[in-house]
Each structure stands twice: as structure tokens, then as C-alpha cells.
Amino acid sequence: MEENEVITENLQEQKGPMLNAFFRIHDYLVAHSTMPIRRLLMDEINWDDRLIAIKGGRGVGKTDFLLTRIKEIETEWRAKMAEEEANAPTKRRSSKVSRPCLYVSMNDFFFTRHTLVELASKFVRSGGRYLFLDQLFKYPNWSRELKRCYRKYEDLHIVFCATPVMPIDEDNNDLKDIVKTYNLRGFSFREYLNLQTGLRFRSYSLEEIINRHSSISREICERVRPLDYFKAYLHHGYYPSYLESKSFEASLLKVMNSQLEVDVLMIKQIDVACLHKLRKLLYILMHDAPCALNISNISEEIGLSRATTMNYVKYLKDSRLINLLYPENKNFPMKPTKVYMHNTNVARMDFTREIAPMDWFETYFYMAVHGAHRVNATERSAMFIVDSKYFFDVKEKGSSRDAIRPTAVGELELGRGNQIPLWLFGFLY
């Protein structure tokens, strides 16, 4: 028996209050969590899997996503308990009823002296089935202990939040072949529109949008005018924090700095003295994107070698602050064709810059499509190629003459011919 397991066996009685303390925090957070709309990802996950990673950038609502799933499980559990009690009212109930779920933040000081395996052991012994873990990257040896929990407790389901730079799946030998990873993105334009209007528009596949955009856009426009909301979405609709009363800009600035200071510096183990150079690199890209990447000029301006600068660019992409557009079959460490900000909300955080409409529209198209599809640069006259088969242009205004290929048009409300309303690509999820 390993040392941690010996500790678990010997100290069970001493840890009686431990679960109660975690449940008090759990109950408060679940009671006060709000997810104003049901995220599409909730229904795409196979919740029967025993180890699930919810991966997403900062500020997109991962914690509320976990808490919402907990609410669903606990609601079903209470209904089942009530039904059992109604069917057998004279049956004596146990004074200590097991609880199915537990949410735990791994930055709790408890984990400075105790382990995740200890917590899982106690929870399973109490009858628990679903363990939800947040802030896991702050816990040393997190992947190794997740693997131990997975192997040791076959009836335990673990769901954990992961930052984009955490090594999961094929990049992690401990979790490879046992973890199922899902990506949670910020609000799509569809989700934003549903929130703002109280309507319940469904999502569409890329093929539906390409082949049926005229009828789809007409059906939507019979109920709402999407362009009345589109500019606001580009400005602030991607991050759920826009729903809060505090300053959205201050909130987004905090998110972006956490991505640099924690997701890049801490997890990638970069010297904190380089933070200023990293911030300067981001600001340079924010000021010019969408743009070609001039590594020589940028590395000279921030005082780093070309190789280090290119690595920093990759870190910014991994942390979901920027996107890199490559030709097909090419990727890092090769130089990208173009750099985009990850989303239009981040793009406009350079307050000294007046962003041209086409910059908004290109950035939005890439953001909306690349989450579930492969987007590349093309040597043809088209701007993008998607999934190696669909060539797309992006334009600001529609034309009386039809386009020669599918074209996403920023200021178009109803689709016609090959001219597709740009806003409609926000209905992909």
C-alpha cells in the first residue's frame, strides 16, 4: 500500500469535518451560481465518461458550467429521493443520506498537506459519485493523481476545468486514453441574441449555413433584426461578464492579465521578469491585427531573440489571446500567414486604435468558424479555406452582382446567392 493510501486509511476518523466544510462551500456556490442560458456544450458531452476535462479560456464561464451541471444532477437526485419516500413512507430513512456531487476548488489550503486521492477516498466512502474539480492546475502532480483516482474508484466520475495551456489528451502520458476533453468557448452570437431577446434560436451546421442561408436568415429575421445586435456583440458579447453591472473593460483587462500571469508565466514556467516583454508583444499584435507577423521587427522591439519571440507568440495562441492562420498542412514553428486576435472583444482593448470594419469582420469569421472547423489560409484569391474544401471570402458590404464563391458579408442581413450574412456564422454553436 502506498504512503498516501496509508494516510487515507489511518486518518479517516480525523477527517470527519472535512467533507462537511467542502459541502458548505459547495452549497453556497451552487445556490448563487447563474448560467442565464443553457450552453450547447452541456448536451454534447457524454456524461457517462468517468474522466472529463472542460477546457476553455479564462472568463468564458467554466466554473458556472460545472455548477450548472451539479444543479441538474442534484435536482434529479432530490426527485428520486422524494419518489422513494413517497412510495415507502413508513420505511425508516438513514440519518446520514449520501450526496451525489461535490464541487472542490483545488486552491484550498487543505491541499497543501493533503491529497486529491484522500479527498476522493473520503467522498466515495460517503456514497459520492460525481466529483467536480476547479483550479486544478494549482495542484502539483494533478494528472498523476487524477489517473490514480480513475483507476482506484471505478464508480467515481470526475469532471475538471482545464486552462488551454494545461497538457491534456495526447500531451499527457498520465491521462492519454482515459480523459475526454471538451472545449467551452465564449458566447456565440446566437447565445448572445437569445440572451438579449429571450428567444430560443437553435444552432446550424456549416453545411446548413452554406446551402440554406437564404431561408435560415429569412426565418430568423422574421423574429428579430440581427444587425441591431451584431455590433454590440462584436464589442462586448463574447464574455459572460458583460452581464454583470461592473465595468466590462475592467473585467476583461483582468481576464487578459490572468491569462498572461497565470496561464503563460506560471504554467509555462516563464521568468516573471519577462512579463513586461510578453505584455508588450501582446499589445503590438493587438494594435496591428489582423496582420502578417514580422518576427524580426517585433523581436528587436521587445528585446528578445527571434526564436523566443516565436515561442511567446505560440504561448499567446495557446492561452487563447490570439489566433494564428496557417496554410494547409503547416503549423508552428513555421511563421503564420496572418495573426488575428482570439475574439473581437479582445481586439478592441487597444483604446488608441480605431478598428476598421473589415478587421472586425475577418476576426469574427475566424473566431466563429475555427472552434469546430479547421480554418487555413489559401494560395487562391479566396481569403480562407475551411476543412480543406470550402473557400470563403469576407467582405464588408453586399453587391448587386453575385459572388463567385461563398462570401461572408458583414453588413448583410438576408442571404442571397453566394452572399451569406456574416452574423449567421455565429449560429454554428
The geometry reads as globular
Terminal residue distance: 47 Å
Largest sheet: 5 strands, parallel
Regions with pLDDT < 50 over 5+ consecutive residues? Answer: 1-15
Count of structural domains: 2
Alpha plus pi helix count: 15
Major sheet: arrangement of strands: 2-3-4-1-5
Task: Bin the strand percentage.
Answer: 5-15%
Question: Radius of gyration from the CA trace?
Answer: 24 Å
Structural class: alpha/beta
Annotation, overall tally of beta strands: 12
> Helix content range of the residues, please?
40-55%
The overall pLDDT average reads 92
- Which series of helices and strands comes N to C? HHHEHEHEHEEHHHHHHHEEHHEEEEE
